[in-house]
Write a structure and sequence with these properties.
The protein is mainly alpha-helical. The chain contains 15 helices and 2 strands. A two-stranded antiparallel ribbon has the order 1-2. The protein is globular, with a radius of gyration of 21 Å.
Length: 307
């Protein structure tokens, strides 16, 4: 009767355990999810306007290192926990896992921006300006260890998520983190192509447009189509805001760390600040070499003011 009422509350794929290869696949699933999403978006042009100083090769090497560390950190569970428990999955634990990741990421992320001795370990990630899908986890070793240990202790040590539950939640988180590091202009351009395909001969340029025709639109339209996502604002405009990721901005609302809240506290016009940042980004892409752009970005990170 209980199974009929709540069939997903405690589902086990195989009570007698699973094949070792299946377990290894689960342990690698978050990494696979990252490469599918990040690589796929990269191949269809999400990063084509990238002019940052971090090379794609370095992003890939960092991600491979993170993948190895993540996999090796899961290996001890194969020997410590009961084999039959690896493949159990409780949907309530999945919801809990999402909440844990959001809370831990917010607390750690905010700490790495506000606690003086933690700031250096996060600066490497902020070299990624503008954002790039393959650089979603372009972090220092110390940052990966810092956040990873706290996540592991919380999700596995305290809340006892199984390997299957961790794999599902972490894969979802990896996908959302890649989306966070995808330029908003890419999504806007794809949406415009869906609404008014360029192949339509009856579609005038001012309606269909191209990826770099921002001069054809007024300021409000530019803000919507060529502006920044929440996480792009954190990278490109105001590092002291928008700490939440990867699932929900809820904690930024709760603790008053949304970009607009920070602007209100400092008496600045958020629209004007975003427009200046957008113009600076466009200027860097069209006129300045990557190294000069990176110098300006370093000044933004080191400064406590909003550029």
């Amino acid at each position: 009767m209980i199974q009929l009422i709540d069939p997903l509350s405690s589902y086990a794929v195989r009570e007698d355990g699973a094949d070792d290869w299946a377990i290894f696949f689960l342990m690698m699933l978050p990494s696979i999810s990252f490469w599918v999403f990040a690589g796929g978006l990269h191949l269809i042009g999400a990063n084509k306007s990238y002019r940052g100083k971090v090379k794609v090769r370095d992003m890939i090497m960092t991600q491979l290192f993170i993948d190895c560390i993540q996999f090796l950190a899961s290996v001890p569970r194969l020997f410590i926990e009961e084999h039959s428990r690896h493949f159990t999955c409780d949907w309530r634990k999945l919801i809990l896992g999402v909440m844990v990741i959001d809370v831990v990421e917010y607390v750690c992320h905010r700490a790495m921006h506000t606690v003086s001795f933690l700031k250096p370990i996060h600066k490497r990630h902020h070299n990624l300006m503008p954002v790039h899908t393959l650089g979603a986890y372009y972090n220092s070793t110390f940052e990966a260890a810092f956040v990873g240990i706290i996540l592991g202790v919380t999700a596995v040590g305290i809340f006892q998520l199984t390997i299957l539950e961790i794999s599902i939640v972490a894969s979802f988180g990896a996908s959302m983190t890649v989306i966070d590091h995808t330029p908003k202009r890419f999504w806007s351009s794809k949406w415009r192509q869906i609404k008014q395909p360029r192949s339509n001969p009856n579609c005038p340029k001012e309606e269909c447009g191209t990826d770099d025709d921002s001069d054809n639109f007024n300021d409000e339209e530019k803000d919507e189509m060529f502006g920044f996502s929440d996480h792009e604002i954190h990278h490109n405009v105001c590092p002291g805001s928008n700490y939440s990721q990867p699932f929900s901005p809820l904690l930024d609302y709760v603790f008053g760390t949304r970009f607009i809240d920070v602007m209100n506290k400092t008496g600045q016009d958020p629209k004007e600040v975003l427009r200046r940042a957008r113009d600076r980004r466009d200027r860097q892409e069209k006129q300045k070499p990557a190294m000069q752009a990176s110098m300006e970005n370093d000044e933004l990170w080191d400064s406590k003011k909003v550029s």
